[in-house]
Amino acid sequence: MNRREFLGTSLTAGAALASAPLAQGAMEMRESQKGSGNGAQRSPRKLPIGVFNPPFRALSLDDMLDKLSSLGVEAVEIGAGGYTATPQCPVPELLADPAKARAWKKKFDDRGIPIMTISCHANALHPDPATAAAFTKQFREAIQLAGMLEVPTVVGFSGCPGGSPTDVVPNWITYNWPPDHAKALAWQWKERVIPYWQDTAKFAREHHVRIAIEMHPNFVVYNPRTMLRLREAAGEEIGANCDLSHLFWQQCDAVEVIRLLGKQGAIYHAHMKDTAFFRENVARFGVLNFDASPEDREGSEFFRAVGYGHGASVWKDIIAAYMEVGYDGMLSVEHEDPLLSGEVGVTRSLAVLKNVRDELMANQPNPGEAAANGGRSKRKVTA
User: Fold this and answer.
1) pTM of the entire structure?
2) Which residues of 302-337 are buried (b: 16+ CB within 10 A; e: fewer)?
3) Residue pair 121/156 in contact by the 8 Å Cβ criterion
4) Residue 55 gets which letter from DSSP?
5) Which residues, other chains included, contact 76 with Cβ-Cβ below 8 Å and sequence gap of 6+?
6) By CB neighbour count within 10 A (0-12 exposed, 13-18 middle, 19+ buried), where does 99 fall?
7) Phi and psi (nearest 5°) for 20?
8) Amino acid 45: pLDDT
9) Residues in contact with 224: Cβ distance below 8 Å, sequence separation at least 6, in sequence order
10) Own/partner pairs for 126-130, CB < 8 Å, 24+ apart?
11) CA 283 to CA 337: how far, in whole Å?
């Protein structure tokens, strides 16, 4: 597969299906695929449902694989540096010994749990030079490891620089007034963001790896618009880690986000994590008001396991949308639920996702509100 084919695997299907209904549209994919290959009908692709491994960081590699196998995990995303480094992935050792790296990867393959993504969530744009250098090194090592092992995707953050050359802490700017904020934001993108990511995209290209940027608060890419801005500036090696939990609270419609990014072939990874809202606190304080802790009774929202913020019908529409746009990665459960242990949260998320995926694969559309509205749910985020 050449570079254009590699980077554009989801573009054609996404453009063709971007306007289709939700769960029904996923089933109608087989009609759009009649003309491919030998003309036989093909079912929607069964997206593998897996896990991002930090909840199991206390286990040895073999014990972690035993646990993931017992949970029915179908693929894995491995933390390999930055804020989400995990001891099961000793990156320097693996890079120093390609044979050891291949044997390490084979352990996953032998369990039927392929490594589909390597992650290094870091801030390589940090204004402290030593911090930025350390994160840059770790992210490049993650890219090198992915290239060595033929893992197609590396996940990370866009990063956040200071607001000027003399700043010592990151400065997240989302509004361009008063004018000094607009000036600082323009400086960030021109002097720090675009040069770094153009260079990093080139490095990823040389290793035949694509980069999935997680749209996350406190970093310069935090929503689909800033995601597409970075992709336009740095190239098609840059795409999205579509973690909807960070978009729910911004009042984005999950299906519309998937269609927007999928139409452009720009979804390279998908975290599965939910967000729950306290409606009375949203009404009083707005959405820029995250829970400080489980004891915080005035927070507006907090992260939950899949199904604990939005119901199964919503997640069924979400998976249907990923199928419709031709997404070719894994659905990766990321556990950040403060009320559930790692294993419990992962187990319950897997159950919801597998159930709704299996309904879609069995040609069972959503019978609820989405179907009644021609495939377009009118749900509210705070419901």
Assistant:
1) 0.86
2) bbbbbbbbbebbbbbbbbbbbbbbbbbbbbbbbbbb
3) yes
4) G
5) 50, 51, 52, 53, 68, 108, 113, 114, 115, 116
6) exposed
7) -75, 155
8) 85
9) 215, 240, 247, 252, 257, 260, 261
10) 126/159, 126/160, 126/161, 126/170, 127/161, 127/162, 127/167, 127/168, 127/169, 127/170, 128/168
11) 23
Q: How many CB atoms lie within 10 A of CB 297?
A: 8
Residue 310 backbone class (left: φ over 0; alpha: ψ -120 to 50; beta: rest):
beta
Domains of the chain: 3-31+43-365 (3.20.20.150)
Structure-token pair, residue 287: 């959405």
**pLDDT tens digits for range 264-283:** 999 999 999 999 999 999 99
Task: Indicate if the pLDDT at residue 217 is higher than 50.
Answer: yes
Give residue-wise pLDDT tens across range 293-344: 889 999 999 999 999 999 999 999 999 999 999 999 999 999 999 999 999 9
- Here the tokens at position 38 are 């030998």
Burial of 30 by CB count in 10 Å (0-12 exposed, 13-18 middle, 19+ buried)?
Answer: middle
CB 50 within 8 A of CB 332: yes
Distance CA 118, CA 340 (A): 25
Per-residue pLDDT tens digits for 103-152: 999 999 999 999 999 999 999 999 999 999 999 999 999 999 999 999 99
Q: Rounded CA gap, 144 and 6, in Å?
A: 17
β-bridge pairing 274-277 and 115-121? unpaired
Long-range contacts of 275-282 (CB under 8 A, 24+ apart): 275/244, 275/245, 275/248, 275/249, 275/301, 275/302, 275/303, 275/304, 275/309, 275/310, 276/301, 276/302, 276/303, 276/304, 276/308, 276/309, 277/249, 277/301, 277/309, 277/381, 277/382, 279/382, 282/382
Closest CA to 247 of 310, 165, 188: 310
Kindly tell me the burial class for residue 376, based on how many C-beta atoms sit within 10 Å of its own C-beta (0-12, 13-18, 19 or more): middle
